[in-house]
Amino acid sequence: xxxxxxxxxxxxxxxxxxxxxxxxxxxxxxxxxxxxxxxxxxxxxxxxxxxxxxxxxxxxxxxxxxxxxxxxxxxxxxxxxxxxxxxxxxxxxxxxxxxxxxxxxxxxxxxxxxxxxxxxxxxxxxxxxxxxxxxxxxxx
Length: 140
Fold this sequence. Notes:
By secondary structure, the protein is mostly helical. It has one domain (8-64, 78-139). The protein has helices spanning 9-29, 33-53, 57-64, 76-94, 99-119, 125-139. Helix 1 packs across helix 4 and helix 1 (9-29) packs parallel to helix 5 (99-119). The relative contact order is 0.21. The model has no long low-confidence stretch (mean pLDDT 90).
């Protein structure tokens, strides 16, 4: 299992942006104050829980990383493009490392995106489409 010391700063930022970007992209895909507020809380809660309880060191270390790696003014399109790129690059990188880390990363991203969707309105077609795009990027 790999942890933070096993990656360059650039690689770590990419892995982190892929994870947090997936959650943020789902959260902003359907704008609405109440749902976005709930979804932001779900993102923070997920990251806090994973930083303590994830079985995989990589996921624990990523979840412990402060911030999101995204700017406050990032548009939904910037989140989409940047997240897809970060996820594809992350999968390519992790494919050269421990298979358990690759599996754990994919599971963490998928779990986060699903949790964010369920925190809002319980998921809808737009969010389901975002999650499908995330799954496609994770497939490599």
